[in-house]
Amino acid sequence: MTKLDGQVAIITGGAKGIGEGACEVFCQAGAKVVIWDVLEGQPTADRIAKMGGEISFQKVDITKRDQIEAAVAEIMSTFGRIDILINNAGIIRDKSFLKMSDDDWSTVLNVNLTGAFNTCKVIVPIMREAKYGRIINTSSINGTLGAFGQTNYAATKAGIVGFTKSLARETGKYGITVNAVAPGFIKSEMTDSMPQEVIDAGIATIPVGRIGTAYDIGHAYLYLASKEASFITAFTLHVNGGALPI
Ligand SMILES: NC(=O)c1ccc[n+]([C@@H]2O[C@H](COP(=O)([O-])OP(=O)(O)OC[C@H]3O[C@@H](n4cnc5c(N)ncnc54)[C@H](O)[C@@H]3O)[C@@H](O)[C@H]2O)c1
Q1: Cβ(17) to ligand 1 under 6 A?
Q2: Which of 2, 78, 93, 243 allows an S-S link to 226, with CB 3.0 to 4.6 Å?
Q3: Is any atom of ligand 1 closer than 6 Å to the C-beta of 119?
Q4: Using N-to-C axis directions, what is the helix angle for 17-28 and 42-50, rounded to 10°?
C-alpha cells in the first residue's frame, strides 16, 4: 500500500460520494486529510476519525477565493505544509442545450473549472516554495465522450484536461506533478436513484461487468498522489472498467 505518512492532503468535495471514499483511502495511507466542502462535512470527518484517520473539515466554497485563502492559512499554521490537492468537487446542472440557461452554464463552469483554478492559484505557490506537490484534478468519461444534456458539464470536464496538461508543463520544474482522473460510471446517490434496468444497461457497456465505486477512484487518486508517481504528470487516468473506446 502506498504510504503518505505525515503528508497533508486537501480533498475538495470530500463530504460525500467519491470524495468521501477518497478521504478514507488517504487516511488509511497515513495522510492528514482536510475536507473542503460547501456541505457540512464534520459527520464524514468524525466517522473516518473513528476508524483511526487523522481528518478534519473546513467549510470552503471553492468558488470563493477568500474562503480558500483563509482555510489555507489555517492549515499552514496547524501543519506547516500542503503536499496534496485533490480537486474532486463538482456539480451537474443537466439540461438539453436549447433549455440550458446562462446560469446553468456559468454555475457549472464556475464550480468545476474555475474552482480548480482558484484552489491551484492559492496552493501552487506553497508547493513551489516546498519544491514538492501533487495535484489531481477530476475530469469525467463524459468530458471525452460528451453526453446528452451535459454541454456545460462536458465542457468543464474536457477543460480540466487542458488545464491539467498546461499547469503540469509550468510546474514540473518545481517538483509538482499535475494529473487528472476521469471516472466512468460510479455508484453514487444519483445512480442509487436510477431504475435497476438503467443501471443494468450501463453495466452492460463496461467490460469488467460492474459499476465503479468511490474506492476505485480514491485508489487512482492515491497512486497519482504518491511519491512513487513522480515521473507521471500531465496525464489523464481513465478509471471506467474499460467503458471508454479510446
Ligand atoms: N459519480 C460519477 O459517476 C462521476 C463520474 C464522472 C466524474 N465524476 C466527478 O467526480 C467528482 C465527484 O463526484 P460525486 O459523484 O462524488 O459527486 P457528489 O455530488 O456526490 O459530491 C460532490 C461534492 O462536491 C461538493 N461541492 C459542490 N460544489 C462545491 C463547491 N463550490 N465548493 C466545495 N465543494 C463543493 C458537494 O457538496 C459534494 O459533497 C465530481 O467532480 C464529478 O464531476 C463523477
Answers
A1: yes
A2: 2
A3: no
A4: 30
Is residue 35 a contact partner of residue 19, using CB atoms and an 8 Å limit? yes
For residue 42, count CB atoms less than 10 angstroms from its CB and return exposed for 0-12, middle for 13-18, buried for 19 or more: middle
- d(CA 173, ligand 1 centre) in Å: 30
Task: Return the residue whose CA atom lies nearest to atom 1 of ligand 1.
Answer: 186
pTM summary value: 0.98
Domain extents for the chain?
8-237
Residue 90 CA, ligand 1 centroid: distance in Å: 4
Per-residue pLDDT of the chain (246 residues; tens, 9 = 90+): 579 999 999 999 999 999 999 999 999 999 999 999 999 999 999 999 999 999 999 999 999 999 999 999 999 999 999 999 999 999 999 999 999 999 999 999 999 999 999 999 999 999 999 999 999 999 999 999 999 999 999 999 999 999 999 999 999 999 999 999 999 999 998 888 889 999 999 999 999 999 999 999 999 999 999 999 999 999 999 999 999 665
How far away, in angstroms, is 116 Cα from ligand 1 center? 12
The CATH architecture of the domain made up of 8-237 is 3-Layer(aba) Sandwich (3.40)
Residue to mutate (ligand 1; options 91, 164, 244; most atoms within 8 A of CB): 91
